[in-house]
Every structure is written in C-alpha cells, then in structure tokens.
Amino acid sequence: MDGSDSSRFRIRLSRDMAESLLEHFERFAEDEIVTLEVNVAGVWFIHTRSQSVRFLGQADYTAEQLDRMRLVRH
Description:
By secondary structure, this protein is of the alpha+beta class. It contains 3 helices and 3 strands; from the N terminus they run ααβββα.
C-alpha cells in the first residue's frame, strides 16, 4: 500500500488505547470481531446490533487524513 490510496489510512494507538481495546473487547465483540469507527473526534468502539458506542481515544492523524475524513459524508 502506498500513500496514494485515499480510501485507507493508518492510525496510531497508545498503550492505554490498546489496553482499553482488550478490556472492552468482549462487551463490543460481535462474532468475536470488534468494530471501530475512526472520525475527526477520535476512535470509537461500535456495537452494531445495539448501536452503542464507547470512546477509545484520540488518534494521531496527519493533516491530510483529517482533511479526507472531513470530506466523508455518512
């Protein structure tokens, strides 16, 4: 993957975020898979069946990544 693929980007997670991911895995896992949403506000656990969410943490984005996220319409 090179930097020209605008549909994908990387985020960096702190140790606290990784530990939180493990701590809350069972609560948010569906069929043993956790869904995360990444937006300008941060990284979120998403439980799709119940629509519950929990803040995982603020991700470290580049300016280009933030610009791309702001262009996405849900």
